[in-house]
């Protein structure tokens, strides 16, 4: 029993190479699948993600079912991911073109209150899903949106039209000043002109 837990079935070099190659293949496949896969998971997408880990498991671990081999594979996977994230951050500052080529660029889903149907078709996004996402971010209607984009990482970013944006500190101060003037006038009407008025 102890032997099976601590003795790996394949060499650490092979396990490292297998993990790196499978990681790279999954990154490339997800990049080719597009932003939609990262933006939202419907039932079909969730099924693929759940099955994907099972499909590539043997490619990563090979003929190794040991505890040490599993922990080693997980360590390599986390280290490769950390390295890739740092490389991507470096490229975004030093080589934006290369970074854009690897990561992709944002796509406009709504512009000036109109759904960009060609973009939705290209990304295989349903208009109802985009509208629901815009509502979650504060837009009552599509016509309230100046621009909504889907970022390369799948996040949906929205910019409302100016008249639809929430109040800021200046707006609140103006409302308070207006309320104070209204209160002063009400006091004058209800109490009548007094000695100080």
UniProtKB/TrEMBL annotation:
It is a multi-pass membrane protein. It holds the Pfam family DUF421. InterPro entries: DUF421, UPF0702_alpha/beta_dom_sf. The chain crosses the membrane at residues 16-34, 67-91. It is found in: Cell membrane. The keyword Metal-binding does not apply. The keyword Membrane applies. It comes from the Bacteria. Residues 95-164 form the YetF C-terminal domain. Its main location: membrane. Keywords: Cell membrane, Membrane, Transmembrane, Transmembrane helix. Belongs to the UPF0702 family. This is DUF421 domain-containing protein.
């Amino acid at each position: 029993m102890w032997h099976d837990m601590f003795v790996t079935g394949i060499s650490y070099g092979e396990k490292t190479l297998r993990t790196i190659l499978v990681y790279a293949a999954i990154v490339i496949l997800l990049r080719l699948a597009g932003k939609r896969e990262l933006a939202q998971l419907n039932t079909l997408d969730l099924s693929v993600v759940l099955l994907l880990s099972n499909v590539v498991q043997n490619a990563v671990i090979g003929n190794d079912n040991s505890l040490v081999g599993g922990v080693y594979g997980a360590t390599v996977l986390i280290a490769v991911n950390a390295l890739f994230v740092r490389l991507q951050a470096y490229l975004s500052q030093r080589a934006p073109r290369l970074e854009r080529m690897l990561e992709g660029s944002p796509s406009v889903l709504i512009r000036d209150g109109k759904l960009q149907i060609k973009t939705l078709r290209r990304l295989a996004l349903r208009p109802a899903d985009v509208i629901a996402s815009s509502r979650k971010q504060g837009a009552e209607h599509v016509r309230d949106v100046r621009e909504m984009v889907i970022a390369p990482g799948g996040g949906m970013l929205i910019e409302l039209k100016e008249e639809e944006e929430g109040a800021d500190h200046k707006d609140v101060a103006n409302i308070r000043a207006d309320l104070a003037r209204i209160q002063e006038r009400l006091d004058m009407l209800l109490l009548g002109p007094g000695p100080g008025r």
